[in-house]
Design a protein that fits this description.
The protein is an all-alpha fold. It contains ten helices and three strands; from the N terminus they run βααβαααβααααα. The chain has a three-stranded mixed sheet with strand order 2-1-3. Helix 1 crosses helix 10 and helix 7 packs antiparallel against helix 8. The radius of gyration is 21 Å and the shape is globular. Belongs to the G-protein coupled receptor 1 family. Putative odorant or sperm cell receptor. One of its GO terms (molecular function) is G protein-coupled receptor activity. InterPro entries: GPCR_Rhodpsn, GPCR_Rhodpsn_7TM, Olfact_rcpt. It is a multi-pass membrane protein.
């Protein structure tokens, strides 16, 4: 067995060619857009009384998770692009935060789908079923499930000896990419991760699918064309987010390892680590009149306060 390594080197998404430097600049712009968009969404929901409903309560937590997720990946990627390595402990912490946030978002999206199902299918009991206490339990459960998954995988991944190559063929510490460098048999653990990922993805996705199937049935029974239109507008935003996030995650984690290529994994990972956090605020705000109204009120309030000064 060789000398145990103390740090890793990312091969990353980019080289230092002019084209890749341009793409790196685009990535940093996406990062800033995600920070400002999600930060603005959290601010709007907190300062606007008419947005203090379960749907926006969940949306504010989704924005926080997206903000933290992209902040876990992109700044570290930028440092690695400029400087080149990450410590063993730093890699473990990135695994912990990444899996906590992605796992939590899986369950939060499922709870958001259930919230829309109750709102559309049983509006008279909505305030009772989706009480403040229930909403907090759902958000806490999402964080707890994500944290347990993150802790288990981070601890087990770091328990293996790493004494070969230091080069991770990825742009962040993704568990399958890190395990390729272990100088021990990881096949049993990789099988466990595969089963765990299927459960973490399929259980929430089953709730989402069942919720939207029942929503579709309820919408088709509606006599009001305006009610139908409003229901479809609200749910289509959530479905767009679910499709982006779950589609990329399933392609990455639910395929057998024999069908994986490092280049393909890196490209697909960009969707749920960068593109989805950037697009979520846009998806929810562009087709949402209540969010647009809250933004106008906030801008008007800022303009009035400037004029008074």
């Amino acid at each position: 067995m060789g000398t145990l390594i103390s740090h890793f080197i990312f091969l990353g998404l980019f080289t230092h060619s002019p084209l890749h430097i341009f793409l790196f600049s685009i990535t940093m712009i996406m990062f800033l857009m995600a920070l400002s968009g999600n930060g603005l969404m959290i601010l709007l929901i907190n300062v606007s009384p008419h947005l203090h409903t379960p749907m926006y309560f969940f949306l504010s937590w989704l924005s926080l998770m997206d903000l933290m997720l992209i902040s876990t990946i992109v700044p570290r990627m930028a440092v690695d692009f400029l400087m080149g390595s990450i410590s063993f402990t730093g890699c473990g912490l990135q695994i912990l935060f990444f899996l906590t946030l992605t796992g939590g978002e899986c369950f939060l999206l499922a709870f958001m789908a259930y919230d829309r199902y109750v709102a559309i299918s049983n509006p008279l009991r909505y305030s009772v079923v989706m009480s403040r206490h229930v909403c907090w339990l759902m958000v806490s459960g999402s964080w707890l499930f994500g944290l347990v998954d993150g802790l288990i995988q981070a601890v087990f991944t770091l328990s293996f000896p790493y004494c070969g190559s230091q080069e991770i063929d990825h742009f962040f510490c993704d568990v399958p990419a890190v395990l390729k460098l272990a100088c021990a048999d990881t096949s049993l653990y990789e099988t466990m991760i595969y089963v765990c990922c299927i459960l973490m993805l399929l259980l929430p996705f089953s709730v989402i699918s069942a919720s939207y199937l029942k929503i579709l049935v309820a919408v088709l029974r509606m006599r009001s064309a305006e009610g139908c239109q409003k229901a479809f507008a609200t749910c289509s935003s959530h479905m767009a987010v679910v499709s982006l996030f779950y589609g990329a995650a399933m392609i990455t984690y639910m395929r057998p390892q024999t069908y994986h290529s490092s280049k393909q994994d890196k490209v697909v990972s960009v969707f749920y680590t960068m593109i989805t956090p950037m697009l979520n605020p846009l998806i929810y705000s562009l087709r949402n009149k209540e969010v647009a109204r809250a933004l106008k009120k906030l801008l008007w309030r800022c303009l009035c306060s400037r004029e008074q000064d």
